[in-house]
Design a protein that fits this description.
The protein is an alpha/beta fold and 222 residues long. The protein has 10 helices and 6 strands; from the N terminus they run E-H-E-H-E-H-E-H-E-H-E-H-H-H-H-H. It is elongated, with a radius of gyration of 21 Å. The relative contact order is 0.10.
Amino acid sequence: MFNKILITEDLGSINHGIANILYERTGVEDIQQAQYCDEGYLRFRRANEDGKPFDLMITDLSFKETHRERRLSSGIELIEAVRILQPDIKVIVYSMEDRPGKVKSFFTDQKINAYVCKGRKGLNELVQSVVEVYSGNTYISPQLENAMSKKNVFELKDYDILLLKHLSDGLTQEEIGKYFKKNHISPNSISSIEKRLNKLKYSFKAKNAIHLVAMTKDLGLL
């Protein structure tokens, strides 16, 4: 089992709850807690400097605004910062975020090892995720597993994302075409843009462009 775990969570009650259940269920004795990302990073850096690094980090994604000046303000920023110091650190995210596309991006972009949704079964799933990650596996909360499959999460191309972002900003197809042409993005003709939008609407079963943008945002794809 892991020897040293860092928990970064801004709510003290949740922080202590995680530490207690991990100690009881896994037997890990060296479990440290931080309520701010900067505090978590400093603990992590100090452990590395002392030659006694953490081998697992559990972090939330969102941290409430405080009067303290912050260099790191989110779990993602914390993950990216500690990976610079220790690229092979195992990371479990414990958060309320439940959009499949967004969660999938954490595995792809931040290379996390597990994702656990906060909820009634959250702490039990967190214990299970620690065991799975220690065994070399990845873990995703069961309620997200099916939604995270390739068949259920539509893969948007960079072109699609740019197109939908401009639509969400209120640009017309003609204005998007002019922008694409000016920035050498192809295809940029009005007919090509319209065809791509129609294909996206069909894939997402969206009624119109506004519905399409709303759906992709809800899914965390945009």
